Amino acid sequence: MDREDLKKAMQQAQDMQLDLIKVQSELAHTEISGRSHNAKVKVSMSGEGNFHSVKIDPVLLGEGLSAVETNILEALKDVTAKAADMTKTKLAEISKTIDL
Fold first, then answer.
1. What are the E-state strand segments in 1-100?
2. Distance between CA 79 and CA 38 in Å, rounded?
3. Which end of the chain, N or C, is surrounded by fewer C-beta atoms within 10 Å?
4. What is the pLDDT of residues 58-85, one digit of tens each?
């Protein structure tokens, strides 16, 4: 590897670091919503995984504890899957810029 190749590699590493910081900031400020299959539970969180709210349709409470637990779990799985997909997409965009 000659000096120019090394310089180019170092610049790519710095650019990637800046891109990662930018993505981290975007994720921190992105609100993601998830819901249960019947939409009776809705959960919101930031892209970096900080939960902000849980909304439960009062009608669901009449269906029993098991139904409430199942719906909460579904909403949590939905929102975390969406956050993971968003993170994966943003990281894939960064890796494309450096030919990984």
1. 31-35, 41-46, 51-56
2. 14
3. N
4. 999 999 999 999 999 999 999 999 999 9
Residue 74 near residue 68, CB atoms below 8 Å: no
Reduced to 3 states (helix: H, G, I; strand: E, B; else coil), residue 42 is strand
pTM of the model: 0.79
Residue 76 dihedral angles phi and psi, to the nearest 5°: -65, -40
Buried-exposed string 81-100: b where 16+ CB fall within 10 A, e elsewhere = eebeebbeebeeebeeeeee
**Domains of the chain with bracketed CATH:** 3-97 (3.30.1310.10)
